[in-house]
Amino acid sequence: MKLITFTVPCYNSAAYMDHCIETLLTAGEDAEIILVDDGSKDDTGKIADAYAEKYPTIVRVIHQENGGHGEGVNQGIRNATGVYFKVVDSDDWLDKDAMHEVMAYLRRQMELAEPTDMVIGNYVYEKVHEGTRTVMGYKNVFPVGEEFGWDDTKHFHQSQYLLMHSVIYRTELLQDLGLKLPEHTFYVDNIFVFKPLPSVRTMYYLDVDMYRYFIGREDQSVNEKVMYARRDQQLRVTRIMIDAMNDAEIESKKLERYMLNYLSMMMCICSIFLRMEKTDENEENRAAIWEYLKEKNPELYKRVKNTALNWGTNIPTEAGRQFGLAAYHIAQKIFKFN
Questions:
Q1: Number of H helices and number of E strands within the chain?
Q2: What pTM, to 2 d.p., does this model score?
Q3: How far apart are CA 203 and CA 195, in angstroms?
Q4: Which of 86, 147, 293, 328 has the highest count of CB atoms within 10 angstroms of its CB?
Q5: Distance CA 260, CA 301 (A)
């Protein structure tokens, strides 16, 4: 049995996937690296096969018809043999020194009857073309160097969330949950990091800059123009997150508040991108996502609607629309998220 499974969904990644894979190989024989070639049209598949041939005890390759990032993650969850599971996008990478500490902690878990459910590290926005980097850490939220539960956490800042980049889940937890992400859909990383949270009982935080998140490609999913073009997929993901929160049994009030804030952020993003261009279709879709939340859970709807994020981005006038867009662009400059 491997200590950790790294799953790397790859689509036309030939130009940059080597850097990602080389950083994962530093984990050695403790790691299983599953490279999912998602119907690529370039040399991604050949590169992946070459790594599997060179490192047959570490690298596995799955070739599939194009199913999108979510199906790449699904393949990883289905086929993982590691005790822990981490998704790494093919244009990102892991820090060698940070992972040395992370792997040391994971090894200690192998000796325990009940290993930690979720291990957390920092992630770094790497704007390579600008030469800037922004570290997103959690020292203000989590105890450092000890196992803890949701009731031991402190307050998240408004811009502070657990993302796919920062978490390592216990594989069995994901498999027992039956987590399955939708195909042909971007932004499913939000579902991946959101839906399992009520099943997480124990956590451990290492204050190390583990994950390096590359930002800068024009075709990247967080590019503003790309996000606007894929607003239908953002809506699809948000509906799934509404269902997940509505259906979950959330025992901790602190976790409930965190998930409420996360869902509020997703609703805010939907509203902002549906107001970037003033069209009847956008307004109908914006009304529809809020109506979906209201029908699913009227109390949750009230709580989300009344958050500062969503009050400001849904003022029903042209001035309100402009206010929401301006607030988004200010936040974009401050937090450097795309």
A1: 13, 10
A2: 0.91
A3: 16
A4: 86
A5: 10
